[in-house]
Structure formats: structure tokens, C-alpha cells
Amino acid sequence: MSCWDVVADYGLRSIGIGERLLPRDDFTLCKQVVLIGSGMIWNVYFGILALGAGFFLATALAVGKASKVTALRKLSEWFIFVFRGSPLFIQFFFAYFLFLALKSVSPLFDPFSAAWLGALIVLFFNTAAYSGEIFYGALLSVPKGDIEAAGAYGFSGWPRFRRIVWPTMLRLAWPAYTNEAIFLFHATTLVFFSGFPAWQQRGDALYYASYFADKTFNPFVAYPILAGYFILLTLVVIAVFGAINRHLNRHLPQEHRAGVRYRPNLVR
Amino acid sequence: MCYLTTGKHMAFYGSFGTVLLLLAITAPVALAFGFGGAMAARSRVAPLRWLGKAYIAVVRGVPDIAFFLFFVIALDQLFEWLRHQAKCPDWDAAIRQGNDFVVCPAAKLPLSSSPQIWHEAYGFSLAVLTFAIVFGAFAANVLFGAMKAVPRAQLETAEAYGMSHRQTFWRILVPQMWVYALPGLSNLWMVLIKATPLLFLLGIEDIVYWARELGGSKTPRFTDYPHGDWRVYYFGALLVFYLCFTRVSEIVLGRVMKRLTHGQATMGGEAQRKAA
């Protein structure tokens, strides 16, 4: 069986297309690479959707935390504190059992106890809280002169936020937000190790890597493959976010542009 | 209430102690790993410098949970392999037989005849070592940055007084770097707290294990206190525990930072001087 047959059989295994059973013996290098790569589909799915949706909630949270209305401010502060102050692992467990309990109340909650929706919601809230804090910090450091200049041009309220404050906030927050995005992709590996079950063994990259490590009792093949995939994914994220960063900073003189430095120092 | 004082609940409360013990042991060990890593990364010997930088870059570039799963098996096999080489030199069968890892019985860790407590202690120390390796890389990164942040003029002054390279490092650089390292290290402490539930994945009977165990449905046949699925409440309690723990840590670390910045030539120290 050549490697191309393996790709045809297991390339989309993680979303239920191709061979039903996982390989039980003869764990070739090709099988491990293909199946772990197939699992990466889930990591990318969770990462992109949670980041995309989380971006908007994060903006709302940052504005809420800086708001003058006490109720809004307290609400945002508590949301950010709860999701940043507790381990993501516990959040997954808690959410899973909460959705299980709700399931018995109404069948409306059926899809929530599956990973594709339930875990996505937890990741969405989690990244919103972390990026909300980053955006809040950036919002406070928007230069005062910019806002005064906007006022002099007759901007106020929503147009001022949309045209002046928000772009500057994003520009200032972007390097930190890039690191947050990288860590969110790393955090997606936790999904199938907490409460959420991998239905029909359709798991993510780490799920398959640990499957191989358990079966062969040899961690020195499967985990380095996983590490390689994640380093590749990290490079892609840096490239995409770097391009956006250049776009956000395009009006600045060349020497004032801050590059995105890969400096992750947060984990969940 | 009798339900909360059953033997299993006592084990559950005890496992909070396990988590705190792990934190108490891991933090200094990880700091030592970090110090070693940072020293290697700024070494003047090129291979040592590459080794230090590679250690920092690789551990931080890959999801930490993958490292937890990897190191527990890898370290176990490494130790058994070393003991195998030392204790059974005339063993001629291959160690890796297909999907099995076979060492001679005398090299097994812990020995199959040793009591249960040793098995648990061995598992626990593997977990501590794994945590220390992973968080050592993060600490190395923080300390490396802090060492670079100490003003160059301080080191030049030391050299002008005739101190050797080693003396400059230990007497000038190391005492001054802590104030630069503290924000990063306190961040790391928060992260370490939040990584402790991953102990569950390493096969330790920690709070997550017991919360799942105790919260699951119980029928009257096996217990005096039957109940439905209470895992939501148990995990809710864990959530509150972690929130309180991080909040308390935040407050304590804030105070330490205030004390350390006192009299330092940094923005924080300057602000304190003006406020006084």
C-alpha cells in the first residue's frame, strides 16, 4: 500500500470521510503523518472560527471595560476576570457538564454537548476575554492628541470611534494580539482531552498523536510530527497577522512601524 | 453534613494539597531550569548558546499539553533505559520489540515488588520534572530578557573596578535583574497555577480526577448518598477555587512588586518616589 493510498484513506478521516477504522497495526511513518495532519483540520477550524467571532466580542468587551456606565463596566470586568482567571481545561469540563445537564431540559441543547459547537463556544468566550484585555490596554493608550484632532475635525460618537479610535487601538494592540492568536491555536489541542468526546474517533491532531504514542509506546515519532505541524501553523499565523499589521501601519513613516515580534509568554 | 465527610471526599480535599505541593516543588525547580537555560542562552560558547536558545524556542513554539504527554513517557523510558544499561549489561534481547518497550526486570521503575506509595511518588516526581522542563523554558525566556534589561552602564562600571566576568555576573547582574524579571515571573506563576489541572492527564489522582469521580451519578446500591449527575457543581467549585487562588496571587505579587521597585531607577520606582 503506497503512501498515496494512505492519503486517500485517512486524509479526511477526522471529518468522517474515508476509512472508518483507525490503523491497528503496522504504524508506518506515512500513516502517522497523514492521520495527524488530518486532525489538524479540527485545530484550524476551532482556531479560525473562535478568533473571527472572538474579535468582535473582544472589541465590545474593551469598550465596555472603558465605559462610564457602571453596569457595563462591571459586566465586562467580571467576564474578563472569570475567563482569564481560571484554567481553560476546567472551563471545558464545566461547560461540557453544564451542556449535558441542559440537554436533559430541552433537546434544543443537543448539539452543544458535541465538540464542534460546545468547545467552540468555550474557545470563543476565552479568546474574547484574553483579547478584550489586550484591546482595553491599547484603548487606554490611544494618544490624546488623536482624539482632540478628531474633535477639531467635527468627529464625535460613533464616527469618531469607527474612523479614529478603533483603527489606532487595533494598530497598538496588534503585536500582542498576534501572540494571543498563536496561543489560541495551541489551546485548541485541549478540546478532546477534557469533557468533550471525540465522536467516532474523529479527533484533532493531538488526539491522533497520543493514539499513536499509546499504541506504539514510542513517543519519539508521533509527537515530533505534531510539533512540526504546529510550528508550520505558527509560521502561517505570523505571516497572515504580519500582513495585516503592515496594512494597519501603512500610513506611518517607515522607521516608526513596529514589526510583529514572536514573543509568546502566555499560556492558558 | 455527613455526605461531605465520606472517605472519598477526604481524598478529594487531600488532592488540593497535592496540587499545592506540586506548585511548591515545581516553582523553584522550574526557576532553576530557567536560570540554567538563560545562562546557556547568553553563554560565550557557541554550541551551549545554541542549545539554550533551541530549548527556549522549541518548548515555547509547541502546545504545552503535547509536551506533558510526551515527556511523561519519554522520561520514564529514558530512566529505565539508563538503569537497563547499568544493571543488565549481558541482556541481549532488543529493548524495542515492535510495539513494546522491554527492559530487564531489575531495571523496572519502580520495581514491580515495591509498595503502592512508591508508584505514586514516582508518577508525581515525573510530573514535577515535566512541569519544570516546560515552565523552565518560559522562565528562561523571562530571565534572559531581564538579564538584557539591566543597564549596560552598571556592568561597565563593574568592569572598570576590575571585576572579572564571573564576578560581574554574580555580584552585579543577578541581584539587579530580579526587578526586571518579576512582571514576567508573576505572569508565569499565574500560568503555572492554570496548568495544574493538566496533572490529571499525567495519571495523578488530582482534583479533576476526584471531581469527575465524585460528581458522577451514584445509585443507592453502592453508596448511602445516591445522587444524579452533580459534576457541574463539582467543576463549578473547582472554577471558584482557581479564581480565588489567582486573585490572591495577584494581590500578593502586587505587594512584592511594590516592595522590590522601591528605590529602583525604573519608572515604577520613580512614581513611588514622587508619590511619597
TrEMBL record, chain A:
<dbReference type="GO" id="GO:0055085">
    <property type="term" value="P:transmembrane transport"/>
</dbReference>
<feature type="transmembrane region" description="Helical">
    <location>
        <begin position="220"/>
        <end position="244"/>
    </location>
</feature>
<feature type="transmembrane region" description="Helical">
    <location>
        <begin position="78"/>
        <end position="102"/>
    </location>
</feature>
<dbReference type="InterPro" id="IPR035906">
    <property type="entry name" value="MetI-like_sf"/>
</dbReference>
<dbReference type="GO" id="GO:0006865">
    <property type="term" value="P:amino acid transport"/>
</dbReference>
<feature type="transmembrane region" description="Helical">
    <location>
        <begin position="114"/>
        <end position="136"/>
    </location>
</feature>
<dbReference type="InterPro" id="IPR043429">
    <property type="entry name" value="ArtM/GltK/GlnP/TcyL/YhdX-like"/>
</dbReference>
<keyword id="KW-0472">Membrane</keyword>
<feature type="domain" description="ABC transmembrane type-1">
    <location>
        <begin position="40"/>
        <end position="244"/>
    </location>
</feature>
<feature type="transmembrane region" description="Helical">
    <location>
        <begin position="181"/>
        <end position="200"/>
    </location>
</feature>
<dbReference type="InterPro" id="IPR000515">
    <property type="entry name" value="MetI-like"/>
</dbReference>
<keyword id="KW-1133">Transmembrane helix</keyword>
<keyword id="KW-0812">Transmembrane</keyword>
<dbReference type="Pfam" id="PF00528">
    <property type="entry name" value="BPD_transp_1"/>
</dbReference>
<dbReference type="GO" id="GO:0005886">
    <property type="term" value="C:plasma membrane"/>
</dbReference>
<comment type="similarity">
    <text>Belongs to the binding-protein-dependent transport system permease family.</text>
</comment>
<protein>
    <submittedName>
        <fullName>Polar amino acid transport system permease protein</fullName>
    </submittedName>
</protein>
<feature type="transmembrane region" description="Helical">
    <location>
        <begin position="44"/>
        <end position="66"/>
    </location>
</feature>
<keyword id="KW-0029">Amino-acid transport</keyword>
<keyword id="KW-0813">Transport</keyword>
From TrEMBL, chain B:
<feature type="transmembrane region" description="Helical">
    <location>
        <begin position="54"/>
        <end position="75"/>
    </location>
</feature>
<dbReference type="InterPro" id="IPR051613">
    <property type="entry name" value="ABC_transp_permease_HisMQ"/>
</dbReference>
<keyword id="KW-0812">Transmembrane</keyword>
<dbReference type="Pfam" id="PF00528">
    <property type="entry name" value="BPD_transp_1"/>
</dbReference>
<feature type="transmembrane region" description="Helical">
    <location>
        <begin position="121"/>
        <end position="144"/>
    </location>
</feature>
<feature type="domain" description="ABC transmembrane type-1">
    <location>
        <begin position="16"/>
        <end position="253"/>
    </location>
</feature>
<keyword id="KW-0813">Transport</keyword>
<feature type="transmembrane region" description="Helical">
    <location>
        <begin position="12"/>
        <end position="33"/>
    </location>
</feature>
<protein>
    <submittedName>
        <fullName>Polar amino acid transport system permease protein</fullName>
    </submittedName>
</protein>
<keyword id="KW-1133">Transmembrane helix</keyword>
<dbReference type="InterPro" id="IPR035906">
    <property type="entry name" value="MetI-like_sf"/>
</dbReference>
<comment type="similarity">
    <text>Belongs to the binding-protein-dependent transport system permease family.</text>
</comment>
<feature type="transmembrane region" description="Helical">
    <location>
        <begin position="232"/>
        <end position="253"/>
    </location>
</feature>
<dbReference type="GO" id="GO:0055085">
    <property type="term" value="P:transmembrane transport"/>
</dbReference>
<keyword id="KW-0472">Membrane</keyword>
<dbReference type="InterPro" id="IPR000515">
    <property type="entry name" value="MetI-like"/>
</dbReference>
<dbReference type="GO" id="GO:0005886">
    <property type="term" value="C:plasma membrane"/>
</dbReference>
